[in-house]
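lol forgot to send this yesterday, sorry. struct tokens for the thing we talked abt
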């Protein structure tokens, strides 16, 4: 068991394009499968509804931490908060950090989610495992999204 999940994907898209897919709330929603209520803003709560099949009953809630253009986008949230009627607000949220790095073929996107050791013991292992699987899927999702929407300027 470790405290952090780290996934990296090499994207054949320029940093500016990856940045837009990551931080434009409509584009983020398209590949992450969430319908967001509004744009991301540092220090602001981001709300919406999950659109991922089988999880449509779940709400999205995160607090945007940092938006450093074309470099870092981060937010905190309650990982694998899937039990209806459960109040997760007393838990310490995990930190999700996306970093972008220019490469010769495009962009290296890294996501790190940390803080799992602060979760309640009964949820820690499952949240870590499920989010590890989830980030693998999400890195594939953004790659596929950019492959099909590379020239899109919404």
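and heres what i got for the seq, position by position
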């Amino acid at each position: 068991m470790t405290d952090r999940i780290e996934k990296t994907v090499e994207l054949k898209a320029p940093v500016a394009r990856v940045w837009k897919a990551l931080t434009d709330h409509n584009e983020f929603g398209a590949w992450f499968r969430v319908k967001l209520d509004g744009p991301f803003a540092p220090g602001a709560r981001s709300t919406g509804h999950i659109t991922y099949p089988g999880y449509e009953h779940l709400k999205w809630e995160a607090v945007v931490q940092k938006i450093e253009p074309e470099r870092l986008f981060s937010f905190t949230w309650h990982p694998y908060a899937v039990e209806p009627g459960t109040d997760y607000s007393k838990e310490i949220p995990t930190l999700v950090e996306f970093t972008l790095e220019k490469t010769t073929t495009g962009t290296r996107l890294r996501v790190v989610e940390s803080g799992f050791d602060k979760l309640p013991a009964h949820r820690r292992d499952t949240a870590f495992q499920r989010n590890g699987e989830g980030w693998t899927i999400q890195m594939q999702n953004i790659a596929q999204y950019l492959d099909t929407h590379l020239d899109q300027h919404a």
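Strands lie at 4-11, 34-36, 45-50, 59-68, 72-77, 94-102, 107-114. anyway ping me if u want another try
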